[in-house]
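Blackboard transcription, Thursday session:
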Amino acid sequence: MINETGVQIKRRKQRNRIIELAIIFASIIVLAIILPSVIPAFRLRLVGRFLSLAIVALGLDLIWGYTGLLSLGHGVFFALGGYALAMHLNLQLPEGEIPSFFTLYGVKELPWVWQPFYSFPVTVLAIFIIPGIMAGLLGYLVFRNRIKGVYFSILTQAALLVFYNFFNGQQEIINGTNGLKTDTEQIFGLLVSSPSVQRTFYILTVVLLILIYLLCRWLTSGRFGRLLKAIRDDETRVRFSGYDPTGYKVFVFAISGAIAGVAGALYTVQTGIINPSIMQVAFSIEMVIWVAVGGRGTLIGAIIGTLLVRLAQTFLSESFPEIWLFFQGALFLIVVTVLPDGIVGWWRDYAWLKLRSLFGRKPSLATYPSLAEDPEVDQERDRLSSK
Amino acid sequence: MLLIAALGLAIVFGLMGVINLAHGELIMLGAYATFVVQNIFKPFGEPWFSFYIIVAIPIAFIVSALMGLIIERGAIRFLYGRPLETLLATWGVSLILRQLVRSVNWSLFMAIGIFALLFFGGMQLLKRLVDWQNIRSKALVILLPLAAGIAIAFNLLLGANPALSKPWFSARNVDVTAPTWLRGGTTALGFQTPYVRLFIIALTILCLIGVYWFLQRSTWGLKIRAVTQNRTMSSCLGIPTSKVDALTFALGSGLAGIAGCAVSLLGSVGPNTGQSYIVDTFMVVVVGGVGNLWGAVVAAMGIGILNYLIGSGTLALFLTSVNAPQSLIDLLLFFATSSMAKVVVFALIIVFLQIKPAGLFPQKGRTAEL
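(Written on the board underneath:)
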């Protein structure tokens, strides 16, 4: 592979692209057409929820895996998207009425926050624009001062807690702890919890997942993606090379927030309710672990990780509710210490090579053949490292 | 109160650059240790029972410090220089600790003991007997499931016995009653102050002085400071850096234990107690600046007082008395609940960081990294 010509490289890239497209197409068929007819509606709803969580994981991977910003506050954006849609659904009422919970707190007039959500297009825009703006604002305030690394993580976590308190405390505006129900509401005159609507939402989730995957793919592959990786690896150097990382970081954080908003909206309609508990600290850190399990810095890893962990969680906590927390804790430790690159990274760096060598293919070389294949060099390396 | 917790964290974070999300759980462990000590002292009757808190403080310190040592040796040791990974690992630890407190019982306790004995004993034995370097990974793969399997089998066997499988604490909250001499209060300076709070304030000051003395005057303190400033250089000069790391972490954890002791005096304690403190303490560290005790002190006081002033509506009352514009008062009243006060404090912290991004007392240096 070392002596490849330009034409060969181009051809190989083209082949890879075709394979990738085929895989995406196949997964669309499996997820959107085969799966709904095979498994019961209840499980399908579960899968739909997992897939919408995979969307958040994609957004998180974009900022953590590629830009090196670990956000522990994605629950905020997730919840903002979810609330936006839930508010719209709660407003599907006859003229002049307001959602019933308002009367509990003696509110007569619809609060101004709710007014825009009467219209459907505004809601759809709000689902990703509000979290995006929120993320951009927070990002701008934080990144402008070159606060980074762990401080950024802590600040996002604090923001999460603040929003959690805020939504919990505001009973008059958004029904506080009880949250907003979506199951009993209507969309375009149909009950949200009815099977056909749920099926539509499921397929919508699959389509959006693929679309967002492609968007992230496009963002991370070109010049912009390389810049993001450069910021992750050495931000100071990027700055000294004449770029201003702040703008890029704010932008990518806003995109990630918007993605989380979309995911939140999809998750909400497939769960049937949204309440502030979605903004608990634990949930947002869980999102991070999905990405870590799958392998950060690989978009497909984020999806795989989410699905795997959520599936494991469903089955384990159905059968042994006590052990799940232990298991989750152990998962954090194992992923961090043993599998820092996640499952996809492990596959790429270890298992795939093993498999290739089993079939008698030569391992592809990272350095010159004279260095990598010389047994003497290996021996010397062993001797040196054992000392 | 917030201060002791933050102090431990400031040490661990400031000196080692390790974010310890399990810090809240260490506080909880300290509180539970206090609870256990109290139960041990109960049968002894009145004159002894009054002073259990004096015993409880060092015991809470030791329990938390030991747990901190285990965490450091077991996980964090491998992750120095990778703060984000450490953060995740400690979160994992905190999950495990929380569930552990909920479901710990004699059989689980013994199972863990057996596992540790078999695993580490086996490793030691193998290390002595054979060529360790060559079989290390294989030995790990064999020993780990073996020891775990035996331990789980043992646990299941013992679990059949109800006396052994009864949880120690269960998921409910436990209450620590303050000794008689701490009940009641005094009216000083026009404020109603319970003795318990005075005791905690005294404890905080004592801890502060102790830590200050330890870091500035003792040999180990000197070594800790040296490692903080320049790890490579101190290692070259013969300071055992890994020992210093373990010690620092244990010290920080131990302080969390004392904080837990104080927490248990203020209210009931549950497995999730630690969670409510963790973000506040981190805020203190962020505002105070890294590696600076005074920063932590000032920040803790500032955040605590602000929280109280806004949350209780005192500020709004004050402004009413000086005829401030009505809109401002309304705004403040809107935020006059404890949860909304947090919102304001967070906003203020963000504003503050716009002015001084590196905290109150930033470390001086010439690096481009801030």
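Lecturer's comment: The two ends of chain A are 35 Å apart (CA to CA).
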